[in-house]
Amino acid sequence: MRIEILSTGDEIVTGLVVDTNAAWLSALLLEQGWQVRRRTTVGDNLADLKAVLRECANRAEVVLVCGGLGPTADDLTAQAAAEAFDQPLTLFPDWLATMEARYASRGRAMPASNTKQAWLPQGCEILDNPVGTACGFLVHSGQSRLFFTPGVPFEFKQMVREQIVPRLKALAGAQTDTELRRFYTFGISESALSDRLDAAPWPTGIELGYRSSMPLIELKLIGHGAAPADMDAAEARLLQVITPWLVGKGNEEPASQILALLGERSLCLREGETRGALLAMCHTHPALEAHFSHALPDELDLLAGEGPHPGLTIGRAGPHGVPLLLCIDGRQFGQTLKVSHPDPGSGRRILAFAALDMLRRHLLGLPVLADYLTLTRTASRLA
Q1: Closest Cα to residue 69, out of 185, 140, 155?
Q2: What is the pLDDT of residue 307?
Q3: Residue 361, number of CB atoms within 10 A of its CB
Q4: CA-CA distance, 42 to 44, in Å (whole number)?
Q5: What is the CATH number assigned to the segment(s) 178-251?
Q6: What b/e readout covers 104-114, taking b as 16+ CB neighbours within 10 angstroms?
Q7: pLDDT tens-place string over residues 166-193
Q8: What angle do CA 71, 75, 80 make, to 5 degrees?
Q9: CA-based nearest residue to 214, from 375, 357, 345
């Protein structure tokens, strides 16, 4: 099933607004097994909108159009769809009554300009919007189905989940053209991974994608109609290379996967140099205690754990780097790491995850101190 996304609005074309809707939608569809083939952005120009709508409909089985359904003069999407597909704008009394009732329930009269949102392409199917005045609608053009949605993110996402995804599932049946498997690495650079993984081509229908999401590198093994056995073989080849730096796999964030290993056990955090970066990764843990102090030592030998619960401590930066300490099950594991990164915020996230990785490795029965390619260890401590 070939799917395209069309985002509309001068604010997106000019860069005044970041198109988070399209990014979110692409990721959601990929999770369902459908990879978006093309994303297009067009401004608030009627002729351009009509031309791009026709182009998308000629290429794709499904076109998802976002934005331009409001009540103002620059909201042109419904008119463009009507003219592009020879389905004249028609008043839909039921939607007009729905809008009027919603305003009345708040003790307000509906502004006259909102009437525009009930004028839709003739013969289209309305997609309900229970949280706004801009209904979506579905237009058929040849073999293409075009879904039109509002641009307000919370309205858009609810409509996609409740109105569009079920229709796409019914349309596709059991067919999925894409399988995605995610893997997360830490302590190795994207280029170093590529050198190890891309020397030989991947099988036909399978590709490997990379995404740097500091402090991790996400690897995406994507199969386009690939047999399960071929995907399993490709995954085995991938794991053979990346296992020393693998910190998570699947759709859940690695930090959440690590915290799940703790179960109901409490976790105590003390941060200096990382200024809350570790807390940001761990804040969802239900039994969490966190402290911040500028006075923590910058030497590993002076860093001490406190309390009976598992704890992670990150000291201040010193001449030899930043000391990290894990206290758990009556033992202490420490290391001092040097981070070389031009962005201070990224450096803090790297250190925070290095501390969290110490916890992960202990809970999995692995050596607590890993050999990272992107970090330099200047001191260690095991007690």
Answers
A1: 155
A2: 74
A3: 18
A4: 7
A5: 3.30.70.2860
A6: eeeeeebeeeb
A7: 999 998 876 667 889 999 999 999 999 9
A8: 125
A9: 345
Q: What is the DSSP letter of 163?
A: I
Q: How far apart are CA 353 and CA 254, in angstroms?
A: 10
Cα distance between residue 142 and residue 254, in whole Å: 44
d(C-alpha 91, C-alpha 88), whole Å: 10
Residues 152 and 155: their CA atoms lie apart, in Å, by 5
Q: Quick one: tokens of 300?
A: 């590993």
Under a CB-based contact definition with an 8 Å cutoff, are residues 334 and 325 in contact?
Answer: yes
- Residue 329: CB atoms within 10 A of its CB come to 8
256-382: CATH superfamily: CinA-like (3.90.950.20)
Rg (CA), the chain: 26
Are 335 and 377 within 8 A, CB to CB?
A: yes
Structure tokens at 237: 């080849």
Bigger pLDDT: 382 or 185? 185
For the record, the structure tokens of 17 come out as 């607004």
**What's the distance, CA 32 to chain centroid?**
14
Residue in 161, 136, 173 with CA at minimum distance from that of residue 33: 173
Say what the pTM is. 0.76
Give the separation between CA 83 and CA 6, rounded to whole angstroms: 17
**Domain 3-172, classified CATH 3.40.980.10, yes or no:** yes
Nearest in space to 363 (alpha carbons), one of 337, 319, 329: 329
Domain boundaries, the chain: 3-172, 178-251, 256-382
Q: Are 113 and 72 in contact (CB under 8 A)?
A: yes
DSSP 204-238: TTEEEEEEEETTEEEEEEEEES--HHHHHHHHHHH
